[in-house]
Amino acid sequence: MPDVRGVADRVTDNDTLINSESLEVRNLGHRIRHVLESNSNNSADSPGGRHDNDHAGFHKIKILPTADEFSSNAIPFYRRMSEVQSVEADNRGLTHLDNQFRLLREDLLAELRSDFQIATGAKKRRHKVVLKNLKFNGIDCGTVSRRKPCALKLYCTDDIPQLHNIRSVAARKKHISDNKNFLKHQSLGCLISNENLLAFATVERVEDLLAQEPATIVLRIADAASFNKVLSTCKTTQNLRFVQVDTAIFAYEPILKRL
User: Fold this and answer.
1) How far apart are CA 49 and CA 52, in angstroms?
2) Domains plus CATH for the chain?
3) Which of 168, 232, 241, 250 is most buried, by CB atoms within 10 Å?
4) Taking residues 9-34, what's their average pLDDT?
């Protein structure tokens, strides 16, 4: 059998597979990297390597899924109770925490997938807010004296549907100010292009920008790779939209972070 370790090391070091445009090829690249970095003879059913957000150590897993993870059909890793109980007593507590994190996070992902299907029309239900034909309108990092995490400003060329019939800036701002649940601060949504998920983003509610006609929405994307992907998409497509989802991230995130 030929020695392919050198080839595997080379394509992993230069990210040849991981930077591919094909999801299947990218996932193969992550599987190869996982095998190369592993010090054990773990089976294919062990944690790590399924996609860019699957790791053997659960502390490295991002709470919100990446686009590749969300699109992956790979069966997620978790242990049955009998497997947890079979672990040596000294390591059983950590194994139990690992398992609880993965199981709870799968509940979160199931809700996100359901909301995404609604957002893309695969399931029928009324959307909260759908903003179409978004265009790049700059980066918001706060003021010089008061910096904040980098956020993306997107120009709503079709305006916000709920504000279509409100023309004056003063009236629009009053409507936004009086309806705090409309594009609620830190509410979650997904950025979609050609029915493909680009990133999950939370709303930075800047009322002055929302009151403009057409409006500008400010979104925070926590994952750097997803942020770069959205920026790249803004240059190449006109079919960018933001859809609010109902998933109660606040009910999961504190517990997942605690675990």
Assistant:
1) 7
2) 1-58 (no CATH), 130-249 (2.40.30)
3) 241
4) 81
Cα separation values, 47 from 11, 16, 95, 102, 109, Å = 22, 23, 12, 10, 17
Catalogue the E-assigned strands of 45-106.
none
128 C-beta neighbours (distance < 10 Å), count: 19
CA distance 164 to 182: 14
Mean residue pLDDT across the chain: 85
CA distance 19 to 22: 9
Distance (Å, whole) CA 129 – CA 127 = 6
How many C-beta atoms lie closer than 10 Å to residue 243's C-beta? Answer: 19
Tokens describing residue 63: 């709470």
Which tens digits make up the pLDDT trace of 158-207? 888 888 888 788 899 998 888 888 888 888 888 988 878 888 999 999 98
Average the pLDDT over each of 60-74, 81-95, 108-122, 169-183 and give the range with the smallest value.
108-122
- Is the C-alpha dihedral spanning 55, 56, 60, 64 positive or negative? positive
> Is this prediction's pTM over 0.70?
yes
Half-sphere exposure of 90 (CA within 13 A, CB side): 0
Contact (Cβ atoms closer than 8 angstroms) between residue 155 and residue 134: yes
CA–CA distance, 74 with 46 (Å, rounded to integer): 12
The count of C-alpha atoms lying within 13 angstroms of the C-alpha of 176, restricted to the half-sphere facing its C-beta, is 26
